[in-house]
Design brief:
- The two termini are 18 Å apart.
- Helix 1 links the parallel strand 1 and strand 2.
- Helix 1 packs parallel to helix 3 and helix 4 runs parallel beside helix 6.
- The radius of gyration is 17 Å and the shape is globular.
- It has a 4-stranded mixed sheet, with helices on one face.
- The protein has 7 helices and 4 strands; from the N terminus they run E-H-E-H-E-E-H-H-H-H-H.
- The chain has 2 domains: 75 residues, Glutaredoxin, CATH 3.40.30.10; 116 residues, Glutathione S-transferase Yfyf (Class Pi), Chain A, domain 2, CATH 1.20.1050.
- It is α+β, with helices and mostly antiparallel strands.
Length: 203
């Protein structure tokens, strides 16, 4: 088994943090997206949407998408639970993880991909107006995430979960997108200090 990885890109990092929390160690094979290695015929045969990461099982089965890879690890290594422990908990974790992916991580990515000069060759066409349109969406998501964390120890409840991983990686992605958490979002900033002190943060 191995993980086709992509360095500091947000989605591969989400999987590596998930693995670190589980204590899972498998070989990582780097796919350099700056060299369009994810566009090759070989990689496309594994993942037709040409996105990293991809988990390759011992029998050659390829699993793409962060949620699917993490689900495989959760089912094969249940402890510690990062996707919930009962029906309500699992639904709550999934709800918050989906919200953060759709309404925070993806908008941050759109700000970055459509404005940063380094993305000009990869994002064609770059649409500056789309970058600007996503900025207020990011700030609105940060507002309701701060409100949530003023009432909850972690994003989905009392335990660290995949929702915290998605939120943490999205917050880290703010810097290259030239965005920042407002200083008055004290609950969010306190949570961020807490989760980035976890050993898995460096994965």
């Amino acid at each position: 088994m191995k993980l086709l990885d992509g360095g500091r890109a947000p989605n591969p990092r989400r999987v590596r943090i998930f693995m670190a929390e589980k204590g899972i160690e498998i070989p990582l094979e780097q796919v350099d997206i700056t060299k369009a290695e994810h566009k090759t015929e070989e990689f496309t045969a594994l993942n037709p949407v040409q996105r990293i990461p991809v988990l390759i099982l011992d029998d050659g089965t390829a699993i793409g998408e962060v949620s699917a890879i993490c689900r495989y690890f959760e089912e094969t290594r249940p402890e510690p639970p990062l996707l919930g422990v009962d029906a309500l908990d699992k639904a709550t974790v999934d709800m918050w993880n989906s919200r953060l992916q759709m309404h925070l991580l993806i908008p941050v990515a759109q700000v970055f991909r459509h404005a940063h000069p380094a993305m000009a060759e990869m994002e064609k066409p770059q649409i500056a107006e789309w970058s600007e349109a996503n900025r207020p969406r990011v700030m609105e998501a940060l507002r309701w995430l701060n409100d949530r964390l003023s009432k909850s120890a972690f994003v989905a409840g009392d335990r660290f979960s995949i929702a915290d991983i998605t939120a943490m990686v999205a917050i880290d992605f703010l810097k290259p997108a030239r965005l920042a958490v407002p200083e008055d979002h004290t609950a969010l900033l306190a949570w961020y200090d807490k989760v980035r002190a976890r050993p898995s943060y460096k994965a």
